[in-house]
Amino acid sequence: MAKYPRVREQHIAVFGESGSGKTVLVSSFFGPTQERSYSNDLWDLVADDTGQGNRLYQNYLGMRDRARPPAPTKFAATTYYFSVKLKGGDNAAAKQRPFDALRLAWHDYPGEWFEESPSSEEEANRRVDTFRSLLGSDVALLLVDGQKLLDYKGEEERYLKSLLTNFRQVVLRLKDDLLADENRLVEFPRIWIIALSKADLFPDWDIYNFRDLVIEKASNHIDDLRSTLKDLVETPEALSVGEDFMLLSSAKFEPSAADPDHVEIDVTQRVGLDLILPIASMLPLERRVQWNEQMEIPRQVLDTLADGAETLAAFLVGSKFSVVESLVSKLPKIGPLATKAALPALVAVAKMAGSQVRDMNTQARAHNDFLTATLTQLKLDLNHGVKDNLLIKSRK
Predict the structure, then answer these.
(1) Closest CA to 29 of 267, 374, 338
(2) What is the Cα–Cα distance from 318 to 175, expressed in whole angstroms?
(3) CA dist., res. 347 & res. 334, Å (int)
């Protein structure tokens, strides 16, 4: 039997009002990886449910070949499961790695539930059950609809206030049911990223333009939402709300030059979707180290943050690449993060400088160590997202 589980699972929850582009986003995340021209030398992305994958690819082909966006979904609470299957399963390095696939669970929360009250007790129970199903997520995306920002140009605070207040009301309505069996939730999304969907509508913006607009127009409402979410969770200090921001665009949509009543869709012009995997897999690991250095976090809470991170980090450090051995040797063996043998390794991985990650990635590729190469590539991609002004990460 394998010493470790062969699959490591990460969850991400996506919230947005109806029409904010959630279905288009997940279709554009998956679709390009199925094209004949797609090439990735480290992993293959597959949909665990074949029918679900075919529907997403059909949506993508409709955009690519027919300039036809996906039909809107109504009241559909869907979880998409994708597996990042590592290559090189028959080489020596594969026998030492703790898993062969990274599974991403993408939870899509129905947009209509932001705007409408439950029509029956059955629907109210379904909303509670759906929210519970995504509590295992480390990261949640709260989508700001770029089209609505344009519609409210000059009065953006009206739209942002409505969006944040509606979501806060959703949480308040669910609160008693979510806490029915416990005082506070130990497992809960701890990183809430405010993301601009349809960012192609703002070609001159970088992430700082978006962040500044949201803070200027809706800072008080973000504070109210943060306060509401803190009331739900154990160790509320370990919660980031309104501190991380990102840009997202599934494709470039613009009126056709030949027929202004029709839209042309360029699916090659995507923004931010390549950051979804790095955000789901590496950002929680970084944030766990940040928080645990700043505060005392109960073990039961710590274990839910970036679940399995110690095993993953210890594997990387045990890879015997010179850059990691050098880095770990310089780490202090005192303080709250030294309580377990693997935790200094976790700190090492989270704090690697860009040059160190690149060196490790190069060495891993040369040794056909596909897991180490994949994880370091995801960290490099996360760093590039910040450098390219597509992502702001909390510094707290």
Answers:
(1) 267
(2) 43
(3) 12
Is residue 264 a contact partner of residue 66, using CB atoms and an 8 Å limit? no
**Residues 6+ positions from 160 with CB-CB distance below 8 Å:** 144, 214, 217, 218, 221
Q: Are strands 7-15 and 43-47 parallel, antiparallel or unpaired?
A: unpaired
Query: Terminus-to-terminus CA distance in the chain, angstroms?
Result: 41
Among 367, 395, 172, which Cα is nearest to 290's? 395
- Judged by DSSP in three states, 374 sits in helix
How does the average pLDDT of the chain come out, rounded?
86
Q: Is 260 exposed, middle or buried (0-12, 13-18, 19+ CB in 10 A)?
A: exposed
What are the respective helix, strand and coil percentages of the chain, to the nearest 5?
A: 50, 15, 35
32 contacts: CB under 8 Å, gap ≥ 6: 38, 60, 267, 270
CB 25 within 8 A of CB 273: yes
Q: How far apart are CA 169 and CA 228, in angstroms?
A: 9
Structure tokens at 385: 């997202």
CB atoms within 10 A of CB 323: 20
The DSSP code sequence of 141-181 is EEEEEHHHHHHTTT-HHHHHHHHHHHHHHHHHHHHHHHTTT
Q: Measured between alpha carbons, how far is 61 from 55 in angstroms, rounded to an integer? A: 10
Break the chain into its structural domains and give their ranges. Answer: 7-392
**pLDDT tens, position by position, 352-390:** 778 888 988 898 899 888 888 888 899 999 999 999 999
List pLDDT tens digits, range 9-64: 889 999 999 999 999 999 999 999 999 999 999 999 999 999 999 999 999 999 99
Is the model's pTM score more than 0.85? Answer: yes
Q: What are phi and psi of 39, to 5 degrees?
A: -140, 130
H helices present in the chain, as ranges: 22-30, 50-66, 112-115, 121-133, 146-151, 156-178, 207-230, 276-281, 283-294, 299-302, 309-317, 322-329, 343-351, 354-366, 370-387
